[in-house]
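User: Fold this; tokens only.

Assistant: Input:
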Amino acid sequence: MRAAPLARMRVPPLGGLLVAGGIIARELLRGRPRRRDLGARLAMIPAGGAPVSQPVRIRWDAHQIPFVTASSEEDLAVGLGVVHAHLRLAQMEIMRRVALGRVAEMIGPLGVELDRALRTIGFAGAGATVLAALPAETRRFAEHFLRGVNHHLEHAEEMPREFALLGLAREPWTLADYFAMARLAAADVTWLVFARLLRARRRFPDTAWRALWPRLLGTGEAIPAGPPLGPYLRAASNCAAVSGARSRNGAGMIASDPHLGLALPNLWLICGVRSPAGEAVGLMLAGFPFLALGRNRHIGWGGTNLHAASSDLFDVSGRAAEFAEREETLEVRGARPRRIRLRSGPLGAIVSDTRFFRAPRPLALAWVGTRASDELGAMLRLARARDVEEARRALEGFAVPGQTMLVATADGAIAAIRAAHLPRRHAAPADLARDPDEAWPEEPFAVLARDAACAGVEGIVVSANDRAAPCPFPIGYFFSPPDRAARLRALLGGSARLTVADLQHAQQDMAHPAALALRDGLLAHADVATLAEPAGDALRTLAAWDGCYQANSAGALVFEGVVAELSRTLPGPRRLAPLAGLWTARGLIGGEILATPASLLAPALARALGRAARLRRRWRDWGGVHRLRLSHLAGNVPLIGHRYRFGSFPVGGGNDTPNKTGHGPVRGRHAVTFGASARHVSDLADPDENHFVLLGGQDGWLGSANFADQVPLWRAGETIRVPLTAAAVARQFPFETVLTPP
């Protein structure tokens, strides 16, 4: 449906934008949020009259990390609900409204097209399908979690600043809300590929596209920059498991380094739990009451996005008679409500009706997430697992988004388990959209976790979104390059006994040895005799570069500047420019650069070196141009957003280094918006040897002393030790909140 003509709108789009923007600006101008220390923040928790059967004790450390102890699983869930709402209520409320397609309610007319896309995909409908088939045990846990959330929402005397900023009301949470948000978090990373390649497809002649398509299926790289369907979509990560044969203490070790969007508050929070089912510590995503990565007494676990192809596009241009159409109303802040029409067909939602999946022919999106599955139950069972086999059985219930889960045990075993439900396709698609005759069979779907788990080679298992091991049917098509995984294997391989410090060192590594192959290929085409200064100095800097992206590296700056300029100016890479913004296809573009005839490459390289020399003269080194800017969402507001920014500093790393700090083509100073967002290392030999750190802080409350207090630790490479045993928790977590029943 096209936007209504201006003459028919009582409030024109510009007027709506001004009204919504004026409301937000007015709230921002109220001044900086009032400073709250830890004691003041904990005093804000409504502890009395909680919906628990027995008192629930929540101990806190100085960073506001909670350890929740309860006498039943239901009371534990309530305690987690209170904790999540206390620490991250605003974050949860925003994600709830995103999942339900209610963004325009918060930001005005700018959110209308995003809401159209969100409602077309149908996270709410997918969540309803999950809820209808939910096992009783999982349902009870989710219900009690939301009782805790709603208790805080109803009884807390003060709401976060974002409520006034975005016009949020105190709305009780329902199971439908929760599972819609859970389906948003499970969105398929392949959608980013679809969205960008659909735009690129229109720029290519059919013959050229058919030649390029097979190469794209084999060499995609994972640094997405696609439509803003939620930060969970931008999925990458590193994870490593070390066997007892390779660890200093003889037990397994686990190291997880998840990569997500970099903003404040962080999407992760650190948490410990104890109940009759056991005890565990780890990282939870805000609003989700399970440990996505962590450890219990027996096993440690972590994962990376499998980049499984959980979706397919289908060309349904000949099936319009099968489409169903419905109308929905969007509430729009600062403007009149908008009526939108949404279409779907037997093969899925007609996503080509949205701006993000625009195509000349109707396209339907088939997604595994529209089927019933129980990820919450799977992760709750994983946290109680005692060995690899129990972990594998737990993960059979995990369908989307596909994960490569690594497991290490206290007795020294390690394994990699692919967790996903996928259709048994016969082959990769011949183009972006499949023919309707290739529709997925209803059954059987493949449950990958039923495959035998694989033990590590040389006592280690590493995963970094790289290409999945062979399978009888396609698991996915667009993977990360092998560079991060190869570097981690090089750092952790060999025969030396590894320690927690070794794993932490690997997480912070900033080397990209594979970049040196492209560097050397470029050097072979440099005509040194004809280079004038300062291009000659840039060439010498490039030749001396060791492949490391340290913040003080001049070589990294010159290399990235040269590659960006060549990819922009050479005839071959220019054809790939529309694709580079999606996956930063370094291998593909690098091959095109080196395949350029020498008569064209040599002068282009000379110009690129001159450009890189100017970059170096202005910014000096990689950290001068590569900046980590930590900001709340309000920090994006012009003129007054500086009140909600929490630092800009030079940072090392790059797209393909273990210490990932994502960036686009380097033509000037830029902000890192995607990369390593949290870190965890555990030695299973000692229940208290667990180390965590967030890029940010635990508390999402603006003005809290714990809003960004872990940033200095992050920058210094330090972590917070989070114990598991009751005695150690009592010593290290001196503050206590007791939730008491009515």
